[in-house]
Sequence to fold (557 residues):
Amino acid sequence: MSDTAILSISGLSKAFGGLLAVNQISFDVHQGEIVGLLGPNGSGKTTLLNMVSGALPPTQGRVRLRGRELTGLPPHQIARAGVSRSFQLVRVLPSLTALENVMVGAVFGPDAVWGAEAEAIARALLERVGLSGRERQRPEAMTYIDQKRIELARALAADPQVLLLDEWLAGLNPTELQTGIALIESLHAEGRSILMVEHVMDAIRSLCDRCVVMNAGAKLAEGTPEQVLSNHDVIAAYLGDENA
Amino acid sequence: MIFPMQRREVIAVAASMAALALLAGLPLADDGFWLALAITIASYVAMATAWALFSGPTNYVSLATAAFFGSGAYVVSALAETAPWPVVLVAAAVVGALLALATGLATLRLSGMYFVIFSFGLAELIRQLVTYYQTQFTGSVGRYIFVTISAAEIYWQLLGLCAIGLFAGWAINRSRLGFALRVIGDDETVAAHSGIDTARAKVLLFSISGALIALVGAVMAPRFTYIEPQIAYNPMVSFQVVIMALLGGAKRLWGPLVGVIPFVLLYEWIAGRFPNHTHLLLGLVFLLVVYFVPQGVSGWLEKAWRKLQGKSA
Fold:
């Protein structure tokens, strides 16, 4: 099983002074798999994602992409190695058009394409996320979900080996949520490997092949969504012991 | 988008070449007041354009202009009597670039206000270092510069530097580096996570900008005849360049150009009419500019142009 691991995280820890935000987390993401990273607020999910993408250097442990050491590399090198991400609070580039926003991923990603080729990739991805015909608009004039679409398209433009999504579905209304889930499902269908931090239970049940649940920095459970969501410890972590 | 050269760009390049040729003829018409004014304008256009190369896309406001300008002038004072002029210019450019490189590497982690303050402190630090060096080792603070070079030649060299600055800006805008800088200016976190080596891009561009400003300092040095740190590293130069570039609009290549000309004319007028209150009035002008023309003259002109086109269409 470990030989098909694309992303392998082993013994990863992060301490902020005396606070152990992430404590000895280990798990793998395999080719074509969507792994959900769950846990109550403040359990260290985003910190873990930040260590994978290079935003934070880990205190301990290793991150490897197809056996290649990513631990401690700066974010631009990790991005070029094939890890793309979205951000918890959507981050689009306000002075660039939608098309240029998406091109950024292709131009500076692992393939380093430029010119008409980058433009073609960006155009195709804008269409893919449902924004065709809006290439020249600026993201600030767009709705929240459209900005999230741009961010997703930008991450995909790098043609990443692993896609990290940090609560990409959060803050969407029910209709938008269905669209969003369908979009990620289509990425799953084309064999993308995704690690996603998510709170939306519908999305977790329908999308994730496996889930890792964190609580207070430590790994609480790992398994299929059904397994972890019926796990006694997981329910206790979310709802308190008396409800478990 | 940015890739194949468009008809508009071809026209712009042709028009700039024609304008440059026309401007180059100025010393033939007048070699007194107007040439002196043109030299001032050309030197500030070159510096503001070079400043905006880095600060325009990245939004990093640098107050280190005087450090580069002064170092360029000092290279001339040190080498002009022994080395041929082209060698002096190359040395000035190299010194400017190295200074920018060192500054850049030291300030990689700074952004926003911290960078502004650091860049200002750097210029002051270098001024003090030069003063210290001169009092300790050369015995006198000032230096005479004897270079036989006519005002017209200085003017032509400055025009050349303006052209180089504009051409560099145009070439960078079309390149991956220019695209990277726009992303950095918008959101450095996104830039880094998209695969941009933000430190490298910033330092590279800061060095190009620093080399150009040092060249302006070198070309202008013979005009001073006598330089001392207070003159060469005058912090007013840094502030004026920022004001001019912002007045014109640092986001567009031709922005500094349309900022410098009205500013220099206004400065000449204020300095002539109210010699005791020059800086007070300039400060007031700066406040008004930031308040009423936040996008700069170029942004304002573009808006007016679009409105005009909208009406005729």
